[in-house]
């Protein structure tokens, strides 16, 4: 037989199993096996403990033959005694026996087969019997290792699966919770939209008395179905009721409150809320609403929650709370916070302006913290009418109502709200016969049943949407009017007993609750503070008024806009016309200026050619000092607006009337320094001028006017530059007073013949200087009334006057008139002379003989 060397790696691997998995302790299948296991335990470090087959770390176990130490002849002691040689022989014999009895081939085959194919040790374990006894321990060790590895692998797989399962479970659970929350949220929204009264059903546990009596439960509530309840009317018959939430006997106060809290929170948002408990006597109405000191009910927890919320929101909303507690006992309202407990005090229900029911005179106590409110609740509970009945030791004999008022003011918007939360613990419906009441208790029961019956009627009417709801049939329904059919959120607890002895009442209560649940009273709405509402009402009225005014103003504004638009259009057109006219005028002015320039030029030329002779030398001033020149004989004479005043001259000559009128012309020579030379000044041409020739006085008028104005006489154009401009600048195109000729000169010489041609009617200003000058030179015959050749006597004299006004040098104010009115005409000395100009005391005359001279 070929000896098998032990593989150190296989040995190491087999000798050190994973720490996490203790080696499987195999139970021996029979005595042989047990012996093998014992061998295994006795020699744990045996090199035979190796794996083979599929395990690469395991090599086939060494053959027992090869593994067994072979005693060499040299190792044997020579000359030992007989006993020692005997022992050795025995050992050798045993080893020989073992080697011969256990062939290692079967084990190797087993291991190979198992290692190659066998995954499941149990499949091959029956083959252990085929293996000879000496090989069994090794086979068992091998199998044990295999088991251990497998178990380890399974364990890892299980852990992995567990992790996976936990993860999936958590995900599914979260999804489920989310779905539930979503469903509840949607359902609540639906309920709010439909305005249903929410109904929670709570079933109390069987009490000790019922248990003792062996009463069974007629109610079945499945934990998985939170909204369903099954009423077992008989063994075969079950009736299912559906409510918004069903609480079983095991549900405690916290669970109940956690479902109630969303409704309670609404009161902080400004909704009116009403929570009431209904049910047979002794079913736990007071327990749910008030609770017991060690296990508080909805009232106390709700107020606690409201105070907590107010504290949480105090930065944005300021809340104030007040509480009123009353009871309806035998159809009378009693104020439970009234310390005087005056029985004569009568309280009644009145409808307020905003349509809600109020109890005037009801005490409304301000509360500031939860301890304070708890005191008030305790005080009210102490005053409540309770009595003992067969059904309940402390049976409520009245309907108890706690009204919690929340006033809020939004600190950011200033909006105020006032909302109520009613918490009602109704008296229990009871069967008189069952409760065994009489006397006062019987009377109480009758009142209780009557008011509960009224409540049932109201609910029925609401459910069937009757037009008339009999709220006023009882104090209870009248008080709860706005809660049952109004715009508040209503929550009803229907309390039931599970006992089979109360099955009739339980069924009644469940039917009633189902009807209540079907009532739709429209969606709730937020309540405003009545004072605030009044203020808002006034404001809205004012707003309406203002809106009306605004609308009227808008209409008038629109019409005005239209008016302005049309006026603007007209004005624009007018302005365009005016601009056009102005342009025309300017064009015309330019034309006239050109004409004037031409005429001036012609006049200058003409004057140069036909200048009148000067006066004799003796009468003339020295040439160097005489600055007087006769006026030009034509329109080319330069324009002047202001002649130098006489006052500005030195050696003002004093010309007396005598001198002036005398025949001696020497006196005239003294006015030598008076300059009559006109100052040339460019005067802008004004387009629009009034015609000075439009109205001219007659000769007599001229003279009188001249006398009157003589004291302040100045050249008219000096004072009225516009007139002078008009006189010299505006030349009518058409002759104003017929064709003007210069035939009226003393010698009949024709100075100038002016034909104005056509002209605009707007330019009917005085004729130009040329024309005027021709008029100025008047013959004595003309003075005496002869009609001039051009325009007749009147026109001639007018022209003369005009020319005097415009051309004459202004005389100083102190100077006396040089020519008295009319004197020049009738004085024989001056008959031949015609005054044509005056400068102070100097008078320019035209002499028949000398033509022109200065006196
Ligand atoms: N869910 C509950 N868990 C434990 N005990 C309860 C529960 N409900 C009611 N009880 C107990 O049942 C008894 C009667 O309850 P309770 O006085 O509240 O009934 P009730 O409906 O108010 O009766 P009544 O109409 O006569 O006033 C009390 O002792 C109360 O502790």
Overview of this protein structure:
The protein is α+β, with helices and mostly antiparallel strands and 855 residues long. The protein is built from 27 helices and 23 strands. The strands form 7 sheets. Strands 1, 5, 6, 9, 10, 13, 16, 17 and 18 form a 9-stranded mixed sheet that branches. The chain has a 3-stranded antiparallel sheet with strand order 2-3-4, covered by helices on one side. A 3-stranded antiparallel sheet has the order 21-22-23. The N and C termini lie far apart (188 Å). The chain binds adenosine-5'-triphosphate (ATP). Belongs to the TRAFAC class myosin-kinesin ATPase superfamily. Kinesin family. KIN-14 subfamily. Pfam families: Kinesin (PF00225). Keywords: ATP-binding, Coiled coil, Microtubule, Motor protein, Nucleotide-binding.
Distance between the termini: 188 Å
Question: Which ligands appear in the coordinates?
Answer: adenosine-5'-triphosphate
- Beta strand %: 5-15%
Radius of gyration: 70 Å
């Amino acid at each position: 037989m070929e000896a098998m060397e032990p593989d150190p790696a296989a040995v190491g691997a087999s000798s050190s199993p994973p720490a996490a998995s203790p080696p499987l302790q195999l139970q021996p299948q029979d005595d042989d096996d047990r012996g093998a296991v014992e061998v295994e335990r006795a020699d744990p470090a045996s090199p035979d403990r190796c794996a083979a087959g599929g395990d690469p770390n395991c090599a086939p176990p060494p053959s027992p033959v090869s593994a067994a130490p072979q005693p060499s002849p040299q190792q044997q002691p020579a000359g030992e005694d007989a006993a020692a040689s005997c022992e050795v022989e025995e050992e050798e014999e045993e080893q020989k026996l073992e080697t011969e009895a256990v062939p290692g081939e079967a084990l190797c085959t087993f291991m190979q087969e198992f290692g190659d194919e066998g995954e499941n040790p149990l499949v091959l374990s029956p083959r252990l019997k085929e293996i000879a006894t000496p090989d069994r321990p090794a086979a068992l060790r091998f199998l044990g290792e295999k088991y251990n590895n497998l178990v380890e692998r399974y364990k890892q797989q299980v852990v992995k699966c567990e992790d996976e399962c936990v993860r999936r479970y958590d995900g599914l659970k979260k999804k489920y919770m989310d779905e539930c929350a979503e469903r509840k949220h949607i359902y609540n929204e639906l309920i709010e939209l439909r305005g249903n009264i929410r109904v929670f059903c709570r079933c109390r546990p069987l009490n000790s008395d019922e248990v003792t009596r062996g009463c069974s439960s007629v109610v079945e509530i499945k934990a998985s179905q939170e909204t369903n309840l099954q009423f077992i009317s008989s063994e075969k018959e079950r009736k299912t009721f559906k409510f918004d939430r069903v609480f079983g006997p095991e549900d405690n106060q916290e669970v109940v409150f956690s479902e109630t809290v969303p409704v309670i929170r609404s009161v902080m948002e400004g909704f009116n809320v009403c929570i009431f408990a209904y049910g047979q006597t002794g079913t736990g109405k007071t327990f749910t609403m008030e609770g017991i000191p060690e296990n508080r009910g909805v009232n106390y927890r709700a107020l606690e929650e409201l105070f907590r919320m107010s504290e949480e929101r105090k930065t944005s909303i300021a809340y104030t709370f007040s509480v009123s507690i009353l009871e309806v006992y035998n159809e009378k309202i009693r104020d439970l916070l009234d310390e005087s407990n005056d029985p004569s005090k009568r309280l009644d229900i009145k409808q307020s302006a905003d349509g809600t029911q109020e109890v005037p005179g009801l005490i409304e106590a301000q509360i500031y913290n939860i301890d304070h409110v708890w005191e008030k609740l305790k005080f009210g509970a102490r005053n409540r009418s309770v009595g003992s009945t067969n059904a309940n030791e402390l049976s409520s004999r009245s309907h108890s109502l706690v009204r919690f008022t929340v006033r809020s003011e939004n600190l950011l918007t200033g909006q105020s709200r006032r909302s109520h939360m009613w918490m009602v613990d109704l008296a229990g419906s009871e069967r008189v016969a069952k409760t065994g009441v009489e006397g006062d208790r019987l009377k109480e029961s009758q009142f209780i049943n009557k008011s509960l019956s009224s409540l049932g009627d109201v609910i029925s009417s609401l459910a069937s949407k009757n037009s008339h709801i009999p709220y006023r049939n009882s104090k209870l329904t009248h008080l709860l009017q706005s809660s049952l059919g109004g715009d508040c959120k209503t929550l009803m607890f229907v309390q039931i007993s599970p006992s089979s002895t109360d099955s009739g009442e339980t069924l009644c209560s469940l039917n009633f609750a189902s009807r209540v649940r079907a009532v739709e009273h429209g969606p709730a709405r937020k309540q405003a503070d009545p004072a605030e509402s009044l203020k808002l009402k006034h404001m809205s009225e004012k707003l309406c008024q203002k809106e009306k005014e605004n609308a009227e103003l808008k209409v008038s504004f629109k019409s005005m806009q239209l008016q302005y638009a049309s006026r603007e259009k007209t004005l624009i057109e007018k302005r365009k016309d005016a601009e056009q006219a102005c342009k025309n005028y300017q064009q015309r002015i330019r034309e006239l200026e050109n004409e004037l320039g031409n005429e001036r030029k012609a006049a200058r030329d003409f004057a140069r050619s036909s200048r009148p002779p000067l006066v004799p030398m003796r009468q003339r001033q020295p040439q160097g000092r005489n600055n007087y020149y006769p006026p030009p004989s034509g329109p080319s004479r330069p324009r002047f607006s202001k002649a130098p005043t006489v006052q500005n001259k030195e050696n003002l000559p004093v010309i007396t009337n005598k001198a002036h009128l005398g025949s001696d012309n020497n006196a005239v020579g003294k006015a030598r320094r008076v300059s009559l030379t006109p100052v040339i000044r460019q005067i802008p041409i004004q387009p629009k001028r009034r015609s000075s020739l439009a109205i001219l006085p007659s000769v007599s008028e001229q003279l009188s006017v001249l006398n009157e104005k003589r004291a302040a006489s100045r050249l008219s154009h000096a004072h009225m530059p516009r007139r002078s401009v008009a006189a010299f600048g505006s030349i009518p195109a058409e002759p104003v007073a017929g064709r003007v000729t210069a035939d009226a000169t003393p010698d009949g010489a024709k100075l100038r013949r002016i034909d104005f041609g056509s002209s605009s009617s707007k330019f009917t200003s005085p004729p130009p200087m040329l024309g005027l000058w021709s008029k100025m030179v008047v013959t004595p015959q003309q003075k005496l009334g002869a009609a001039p050749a051009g325009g007749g006597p009147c026109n001639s004299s007018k022209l003369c006057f005009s020319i005097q006004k415009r051309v004459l040098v202004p005389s100083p104010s102190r100077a006396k008139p040089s020519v008295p009115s009319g004197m020049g005409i009738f004085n024989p000395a001056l008959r031949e002379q015609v005054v044509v100009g005056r400068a102070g005391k100097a008078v320019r005359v035209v002499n028949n003989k000398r033509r022109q001279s200065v006196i």
